[in-house]
Design goal:
Elements (H helix, E strand, L loop, with lengths): L1 E6 L4 H12 L4 E8 L3 H11 L3 E4 L2 H8 L9 E4 H9 L6 E4 L7 H9 L3 E4 L2 H18 L3 E3 L2 H9 L8 E8 L17 H4 L9 H9 L1 H14 L6 E5 L5 E7 L4 E5 L5 H9 L30 H12 L3 H17 L8 H11 L8 H18 L5
Parallel strand pairs: 1-2, 1-5, 2-3, 3-4, 5-6, 6-7, 8-9
Antiparallel strand pairs: 8-10, 10-11
Helix pairs in contact: 5-6, 6-10, 6-13, 7-10, 9-13, 10-12, 13-14, 13-15
C-alpha cells in the first residue's frame, strides 16, 4: 500500500485524486492533506480518510477548523506555508501529489523532492518556473517527478523504454478552448462566463481561463521540455477538439504513436499514483465503435499569441519563464474581476515580463525574488505596470 499526500485536495484535481483513492482503498492510503481555505470540502475529506496530518494555509480557515478538531482524533492540524511544507515533506509518504494551482506550488514541489519524496505533479507552474533546478534536485535525491497532466502522462507512457534519440518529435494536443472558432476581432467582447465555459474539461477557474487563452498549452510546452529533455523545436502543438487523443510521439522512422482515452483526469492520476504498476480500474471506457471522427488543425498563433510567446520565453530561459507564470497568475485574476479584457491579457503579461531583469542561471531564491519584484511593481504602479 502506498502512502499518499495531496496538496490542494479541495481543488478540481485534488478532488479527482480523492475519487481515485476511494476506488483503490487497498492500494492507497491518504496520510496528509493540504488546502488554502476551503474547509467545507476538507472536513468531508478528513472524516472519510482520517489522514494523520492536515494543513490549512489561510489563518482564519485554520482557526475555524480547530474548533472542530475534537471530531478528528489522531489528526494533527497545521497552519500556513510551514504547515503545508511539513505535510509535503512527510517521511512516511510514498508519493506527494501537488495539485496546488499557480506559482505558489513551486516551493512545495521543491520541498517534497528535497525531502526525498516522489512527486506526482499537477502543478505545471513548478517546472515552468524552475525546471532545471527541480530536475537536478530530483536526480540528486534519486526521486521521480511523475506528470499528472493528461498530455504529459500520455507522453510519459509513450516514450517509456524508448531511447531519446529515436524520438523525432512529441505532439501535444489541445482542445482549442471555447474561442477556437471565434474571430480575433471579437475577443474584446469576451465575457468571464464565456471564458469559463470549456468545451471538454471541467476544471478550476484559473486553468480554464489559461486554456481559453492557450497560455496553459504554452506552459505545457515548457513543462514537456524539462520533463522529457526534448528541445523546443521538437515539441509541436496540434488542435484536437474531441480531446480523445491526449498526445502523440513521432519516431525517427516516421511512425506516430498516440495515447487515446476519454477526457477523464482519473486515468492519468491513477497512472501517476500506481507507477510503475498498471491497475485495472472501474472507470468508463472508451468504445472505439463510438468514435465518430478525430480531427486535427494547427493552432492560430495570431489569435492565441500566448502560445507562441511561451516558445519564445522557454527558449530564452533563465528567470523569464517564472516571470511569465507570475504575470499570468495576476492577469487571470484581473480578468476574472473584470479589471482587464480578455484581449488585453497577452499585452499585460508581455509588459510585465519585459520589465523583469534577466538572470541566465537563476537560483531558487532568484526566482522567488523575481516573483516578489513583480508583485511589488503591481502594487506600486497598478495595472499599467509602467
Amino acid at each position: 500500500m502506498k502512502n499518499i499526500v495531496i496538496l490542494g485536495s479541495s481543488g478540481s484535481i485534488g478532488k479527482s485524486v480523492i475519487e481515485v483513492v476511494r476506488e483503490f482503498k487497498n492500494e492507497f492510503k491518504i496520510i496528509g492533506l493540504a488546502v488554502r481555505e476551503n474547509i467545507e470540502v476538507l472536513i468531508k475529506q478528513v472524516k472519510e480518510f482520517l489522514p494523520a496530518y492536515v494543513a490549512i494555509l489561510n489563518r482564519e480557515a485554520y482557526k475555524r477548523i480547530l474548533e472542530k478538531k475534537d471530531l478528528f482524533k489522531g489528526v494533527k492540524f497545521l497552519e500556513g506555508e510551514e504547515g503545508i511544507e511539513e505535510v509535503a515533506t512527510l517521511k512516511e509518504a510514498d508519493i506527494v501529489v501537488n495539485a496546488i494551482v499557480g506559482s505558489s506550488g513551486l516551493r512545495y514541489t521543491y520541498k517534497a523532492l528535497e525531502s526525498g519524496n516522489d512527486v506526482a505533479l499537477a502543478n505545471k507552474e513548478s517546472l515552468v518556473m524552475a525546471g532545471e533546478i527541480l530536475k537536478k534536485l530530483a536526480k540528486k535525491k534519486r526521486v521521480r517527478i511523475i506528470p499528472v497532466d493528461s498530455e504529459h502522462s500520455a507522453i510519459f507512457n509513450l516514450i517509456s523504454n524508448r531511447k531519446l534519440d529515436t524520438i523525432e518529435r512529441i505532439i501535444l494536443t489541445a482542445s482549442g478552448g471555447p474561442f477556437r472558432l471565434w474571430r480575433k476581432i471579437d475577443f474584446k467582447n469576451i465575457k468571464v462566463w464565456q471564458a469559463l465555459k470549456h468545451p471538454t474539461w471541467k476544471m478550476g477557474s484559473k486553468i480554464t481561463i489559461d486554456s481559453a487563452t492557450m497560455a496553459n498549452k504554452g506552459f505545457e510546452v515548457i513543462e514537456a521540455h524539462y520533463l522529457f529533455d526534448i528541445p523546443y523545436d521538437k515539441i509541436d502543438v496540434v488542435i484536437h477538439p474531441q480531446s480523445l487523443i491526449h498526445s502523440m510521439i513521432e519516431t525517427i522512422d516516421g511512425e506516430i504513436y498516440a495515447q487515446i482515452s476519454l477526457p477523464d483526469m482519473r486515468y492519468p492520476i491513477l497512472n501517476a499514483l500506481s507507477y510503475p504498476e498498471i491497475l485495472k480500474n472501474p472507470f468508463k471506457r472508451l468504445e472505439l465503435k463510438d468514435l465518430k471522427k478525430l480531427t486535427f488543425e494547427m493552432p492560430d498563433y495570431k489569435k492565441f499569441p500566448l502560445l507562441s510567446y511561451a516558445y519564445e520565453i522557454g527558449k530564452k530561459g533563465g528567470n523569464l519563464p517564472a516571470a511569465f507564470v507570475v504575470a499570468d497568475d495576476i492577469a487571470v485574476k484581473l480578468f476574472l474581476k473584470n479589471k482587464i479584457k480578455f484581449n488585453e491579457i497577452f499585452k499585460f503579461i508581455k509588459k510585465i515580463v519585459e520589465k523583469v531583469k534577466y538572470i541566465e542561471n537563476p537560483s531558487l531564491n532568484d526566482i522567488f525574488e523575481t516573483e516578489k519584484f513583480i508583485y511589488e511593481r503591481i502594487k506600486t504602479s497598478g495595472y499599467n505596470f509602467e
